[in-house]
Every structure is written in structure tokens, then in C-alpha cells.
Design a protein that fits this description.
It is a single chain. By secondary structure, the protein is α+β, with helices and mostly antiparallel strands. The chain contains 13 helices and 17 strands. It has 2 domains: 26-105; 121-430, Bira Bifunctional Protein, Domain 2 (BirA Bifunctional Protein, domain 2), CATH 3.30.930. The strands form 5 sheets. It has an 8-stranded mixed sheet. A 3-stranded mixed sheet has the order 7-13-14, with no helix packed on it. The chain has a two-stranded antiparallel sheet with strand order 2-3. α4 (57-63) packs antiparallel against α5 (68-105). It is elongated and about 110 Å long. The two termini are 50 Å apart. The relative contact order is 0.14.
């Protein structure tokens, strides 16, 4: 959520920054709501002061010659009127505040100055490339054809069990999927200093609001029936980042690299609005697995932290010897809560294209303000908002897709990256049908 004080001080800066996203911020609406809220608060405070003063007038009226009964009756009449007026003013202040909160909760984060202008992913800026796509001597297959030929991807069975955009993996592919998760967790905990978490797969409305999924993206979520307000987690970002909700960190907690968490979870998304996109195979599913990286840092650390976190995701791709490119998202392609995002796009021979496998974002204090996640600045002795970051390290299903397509051989077998072989008892390829 944006800082309301910053909007008041320089609304034009907010307008200009959000225009980079293609979003129009209604300053007139904001200022009208803010003025109404202030007026309602002033009115309520004035009535409260009047009521306190009126309650002390019984003695004054008696001293002026009124009977006690008359004084009490007169004061009670005044108090009743003031109480009714105060209740109305308080309700008005609350109603206006809810309107103002709704406006702010629906307003995306301000893009970092380094974010390029642009309307869509076509305008993203390529930063770098790593690895050279393998030149195949045969027509490349996509991961579905490879997996189905091996009898180890079964989309039909998944459709019968659940519906479209689900999958069943068998045999070596199921083992490879599991090995990828373990490998990623080992790299991030052992090599990069993340603390592994096991977190709930069900989250509440407050958690989703804190990270920015609600209220903006309610249609993308799977809400559970009942009145508890529970949802299936769309990403581990939600439960893990909410570890900081309502907390005030000591400066010592954020020394050095700050707080680093990693968690593996299934993720559940309705994929609303994506009809017709990537309906084939494992690219865009209702249920998928991710290993998620979250960092909580001091504000002066977050720019460096974004580069480091992105590097940690890149390290996985490099260890797996998967060619990829790194792009800086333009304003029009930037996620709602992010101030700046790098996407890592892995090369897929079956599509002859680079496709997203990780998004690594710096949210600044946008999520922290919603979460009231703070640290105590030793220079001031006061609590201040932290900065939060997250990224996929990596999306497991898409990594499996990349291994299948980049490791495919003419005989239908698939080479297993050398780094993964210890997790599979030395197995070097997948070639048997299940």
C-alpha cells in the first residue's frame, strides 16, 4: 500500500509514476475522500470535547440556582444530543476511511525509476543471457510429447481425476520432480544462507491482503467454502512473507544479509483471464510446485538484495546447465505489488522460445505497510517499515519442462543434468516406459 503522507505531499509524483504502468490515479477522488475523512474526524473530536465539557456542568447549574434534578435533566438532554451527533460523525468517519482504504488497496506500487516504459512483455528490457541453446540434429519435441512417449506424463488421467490444467507424473519423472525440489532447497539453504520453512498451504484474507493478492486478484484465487475466509495459497510468498506481519525486528535481526527464508509448497491458482494460454502441458496449471525465496531487509539493503536474490535463482539454472535470459520488466508488465522485477526466462526447444521460470521482485515498503512489518532503527530508536523481496527459486514444473526439452535425445530418452544424478542414485537418463 502506498504511503498516504507521500500522496498528500506530492500527488503529481504518484500520477507520473503510475502512468508508467498505464494506470491513472484519480487525485481529485483521493483529495475529496481525504478531506471528508479529516472533516469527519474534526467534527467527531469537537463533539467529544463538547460532551466532556457538558458532563461537568451539573455543578455549575446548581450553583446558578437550579435544582439538582433540573440540572441533571438539562445536562442529560444535551449529552443525549451530543452522543447521537458523535455516533453519526464517527460512523461517517469510518465509512469515509473504508472508501479511502479501498482506493489505496486497489492502487499498485510505484515503479522504481529504473523500470523502463512499456505496455506489455514485448517492451521488457533484456539484461543478459547465459548459456547457448543446444543445436539439435532432429526436430525438437515439446515436453508433453516427450513425457507421453515415455508413458510418464498423463494429462488424460489428471483430467478424469480433477479436470483440465492438472497433470499426473509417473515413475522417473515423478522422481525427477521430487529431486528438483530437494536440490533447490539444498542449494538455497547450504549455499545461500536461507532458513527453510514448512508453512500452511491454506491462508486467510489478512495474509492475502498483506502481500497484495487481495482485494485486487480475488478471482485468481481458490476460496474454500464456509465462513472462515480461507483460501488455498497461490504461492509460498503469502505465508512466508506473513511471518513478518505485525513484527518489529531488532536492528541485529537484519544485520548483514537480513532475514532469508525458503519454502517449498504446492501453489493453487484459478488462472482467471488466461483462457487459451498455455493450455497444453505443465506450463500453466491450477496446481503446481514452487521453491520460493523471501527476504526481509532494511530499506538501504533492498536494491542489493534484489540482485543477490535473482543471482540465487540464476544459480539453479546454471547448475542445471539450462540456457536462460534475464529481463527487466517494463511498467506495463510489472506485478501489482512490485517496484522492480527481473524475470528469468529459460530456453525451451519445443517452443523455440524463452519462457518465464522465475520472477524476482523488490516490493520496497509496499507489502510491509499492509503487514505493519517494521524494524527498530537504532539511529532514531523508532520503528520503521522494512522492505520485502521474493522470487521463485525455481518453479519446479517449469524446470522439469526445461530439462525434458533441453535434455531430449533422438531416441526419445532424456539426459538428467549431472548435478541431479546423486539425488537419483546415479541415474544419468530417463529412457524406460512406464
Amino acid at each position: 500500500m502506498l504511503d498516504i503522507k507521500a500522496i498528500r505531499q506530492d500527488p503529481q509524483r504518484v500520477v507520473e509514476a503510475l502512468s508508467k504502468r498505464g494506470v491513472q490515479f484519480d487525485v481529485a477522488q483521493f483529495e475529496a475522500l481525504d478531506a471528508r475523512r479529516k472533516n469527519a474526524d474534526v467534527t467527531a473530536q469537537g463533539l467529544l470535547a463538547e460532551r466532556k465539557a457538558a458532563s461537568k456542568k451539573i455543578g455549575e447549574l446548581v450553583s446558578a440556582g437550579r435544582s439538582v434534578e433540573e440540572a441533571k435533566a438539562e445536562v442529560e438532554q444535551v449529552l443525549a444530543r451530543l452522543s447521537a451527533d458523535l455516533e453519526a460523525a464517527t460512523e461517517e468517519a469510518g465509512a469515509v476511511q473504508r472508501e479511502l482504504d479501498a482506493l489505496l488497496l486497489g492502487t499498485p506500487n510505484l515503479p522504481d525509476e529504473r523500470v523502463p516504459h512499456g505496455a506489455s512483455e514485448a517492451d521488457n528490457a533484456e539484461v543478459s543471457r547465459w548459456g547457448t541453446p543446444r543445436q539439435l540434429s532432429f526436430p525438437p519435441k515439446d515436453h508433453v510429447d516427450i513425457g507421453e512417449a515415455l508413458g510418464q506424463i498423463d494429462m488424460e488421467a489428471a483430467s478424469q481425476i480433477a479436470g483440465s490444467r492438472f497433470s499426473v507424473l509417473r515413475g522417473d519423472l515423478a522422481r525427477l520432480h521430487r529431486a528438483l525440489i530437494q536440490f533447490m532447497l539444498d542449494c538455497h539453504t547450504i549455499d545461500h544462507g536461507y532458513t527453510e520453512l514448512y508453512v500452511p498451504y491454506i491462508v486467510n484474507e489478512a495474509s492475502l491482503t498483506g502481500t497484495g493478492q487481495l482485494p485486487k486478484f480475488a478471482e485468481d484465487l481458490f476460496k474454500l467454502e464456509g465462513d472462515q475466509g480461507y483460501y488455498l495459497a497461490p504461492t509460498a510468498e503469502v505465508p512466508v512473507t506473513n511471518m513478518a506481519r505485525g513484527r518489529i525486528y531488532d536492528a541485529s535481526d537484519l544485520e548483514g544479509q537480513g532475514v532469508r527464508y525458503v519454502a517449498h509448497t504446492p501453489c493453487f491458482r484459478s488462472e482467471a483471464g488466461s483462457y487459451g494460454r498455455d493450455t497444453r502441458g505443465l506450463i500453466r496449471q491450477h496446481q503446481f510446485e514452487k521453491v520460493e525465496l523471501v527476504q526481509i531487509v532494511r530499506p538501504d539493503q533492498s536494491n542489493v538484495a534484489l540482485e543477490q536474490l535473482t543471482g540465487h535463482a540464476e544459480a539453479i539454472l546454471q547448475a542445471l546447465e539450462l540456457p536462460y535470459r534475464k529481463v527487466l520488466l517494463c511498467g506495463g508488465d510489472l506485478g501489482f505489488s512490485a517496484a522492480m522485477t527481473y524475470d528469468l526466462e529459460v530456453w525451451l526447444p519445443g517452443q523455440s522460445a524463452y519462457r518465464e521460470i522465475s520472477s524476482c521482485s523488490n516490493f520496497g515498503d509496499f507489502q510491509a505497510r499492509r503487514l505493519q512489518a517494521r524494524w527498530r532503527n537504532p539511529s532514531t530508536g523508532k520503528p520503521e517499515l522494512v522492505h520485502t523481496l521474493n522470487g521463485s527459486g525455481l518453479a519446479v514444473g517449469r524446470t522439469l519442462v526445461a530439462i525434458l526439452e533441453n535434455g531430449q535425445n533422438d531416441d526419445g530418452s532424456v539426459a538428467i543434468p549431472e548435478i541431479l544424478r546423486p539425488y537419483l542414485k546415479g541415474q544419468s537418463k530417463i529412457d524406460s516406459k512406464v
